[in-house]
Amino acid sequence: MRNIWKRLSIRHKITSIIVLTVVLVIVTILPVVSYMLKDALSKQQQGRLTSVKNLVLNLFDDYQGKVTGYAGLFSNDREIKDTLFYHTELAGEREHPLRAVTRLYKSFGIDSVEVGDRRGRVIAVAENPDRYDSDRSSDMLIKNALRGRVASGIELAEKGFIIRASAPVYYNESQLIGTITAGILLDNRLLSKIKELSSTDIIITDNKNSVVSSTYRDKASLDQEKHLIMRFPLNDVSGNGIGNVLILQEDRLPMILAKVHLTIFALISAIAAVSIFVLFITMKKLTRPIVMLKEGAERIGMGEFGYRINIASGDEMGGLAESFNKMAHNLENLRSMEERLRQAERLAAVGKFAAGIAHEINNPIGNVIGIAKLMGKNYVDNDAREDIETIIKNADRCARITKDLLSYSRQSPPRKEPVSLGALIDDAINTVKHQIRSDNIEITKRLCVNPAALSADPLQISQVLNNILLNAAQSIKGSGSIKIETLAAGDTAEVVITDTGCGMDEDIKDRIFDPFFTTKAVGEGTGLGLAISYGIVRNHGGEIFVESEKGRGSAFRIKLPIGEANG
To answer: What does the pLDDT average to over 290-308?
Structure first.
């Protein structure tokens, strides 16, 4: 076992420890939590049943008080007094008493209203008109009423348990002429109200355990193992038990415990999973710098000197990454210098070649132009004159090409003097506007507020600005815009010329400053304009870049150093 443990990796060892800890926690904590939770939930359920019991008793008391109020109110009803008096005087007349109790029965919406004479015999019952003349003198409620007291209590009647209250009826202050009794049934309506308030079922039984009223649907198949039951007695006005009230609540404790066990297990498992995940991320984060260094070394080995490692930490790995990035930066600068040297050598070779060709061609072209102009003066024939003009036009084009070649090959050192970059830009804008003669291209400028004094050759810089602005205008098909911005940062002045033209792909962008490379149609350009501009900017000690995407325009950035004029 010890050998196996030694062979495990650190990641596997830590994972094993966490898994064993989780198992130990589950085995130890789950039974304890289960017992504590079961005890707490049991007490909570019993407390809930007690609360429902108190609710039922309070409702019974409220209804008893309500019925007592009805009885007292009815005993003072004028019609009740008069009809009872007529019944006594007219020896048993029932029509008027029945009419009076029926009116109260319907008006107040209670379940029972009856009147009796002063001997305790029933005169009229509103809910059962055919019932009368029964002797209720032995009823405790009637006895109390005949003694001048209002009494109330619960009785078991034909329709079920009923809360009744009896009150004496006096014709005058001292003449007792009978009693009146009001009642409200403890039926399913009242129990449904209790169920609505408490979310528990209520069953009322008599002393023989026969169900009298209930909100429980399936009374015959009551599973006592699945329910918590609280039972308390129903007593009549004498305190004798006449039935029972059962409060039923579904015993959800087993289901809750099962869910709790599952939840605890899932929670502990989730914590373990998260811990393992965090451990994995931590290990990955700790080893990531090493992986990044390895990847960086491979990419630099493949020539990607611009690759950098982004490790923002102050530890040893951060220091190693910083040293690596410095090395990559130095290698990138070396490669950039090599590229510039190769470009300079290539341009110099092309310049010498171009100078030789231009020198050999320039004199013959001049002779051709001179002879053609002389012939044009001597010939009157229109056809011959048109041919001569064509010769002159094409010879002039050749002369312009040789002039550009000579300009490219003879790029003289700049005659630097203090210049206003804003003034040069204004002149270039006016020149290009005159050349393009288009109202569909909008040229705007945004110059820095406090431009630095620039030391440069104004003619050469104007040539660069004119060339780039003209190219930008020619790249716009239809309508568009050109924006010129100047920026000053430290010892460098920057001009950014952005257009909304056709843009260029990566292949064109890589060759845009090569001599004789052009994207224009044959006869529309020599491909030397940007090459000459590149040479001028380099001779000023500056840099020129292009940023472009096909179909999204281009942006040329010219960076020139700020310095003293050298004459």
So the answer is: 76
CB 219 within 8 A of CB 203: yes
Average pLDDT over residues 50-73: 90
Q: Which residues contact 67 (CB under 8 A, 6 or more apart)?
A: 110, 152, 163, 164, 165, 182, 183, 184
Tally of CB atoms within 10 A around 17: 10
- From CA 294, how far away is CA 307, in angstroms rounded? 12
pTM here? 0.43
CA angle 545, 551, 554 (to 5 degrees): 20
Q: Which of 204, 231, 251 is the last residue of a domain?
A: 251
Q: How confident is the model at residue 566 (pLDDT cuts 50, 70, 90)?
A: very low
- Residue 469: CATH number of its domain: 3.30.565.10
Alpha-carbon dihedral of residues 546, 550, 554, 558, nearest 10 degrees? 0
Number of domains in the chain: 2
DSSP 224: G
Residue 228 belongs to domain spanning: 8-251
- Please answer whether residues 204 and 244 qualify as being in contact, where contact means their C-beta atoms are separated by less than 8 angstroms: yes
Strand, helix or coil for residue 245: strand
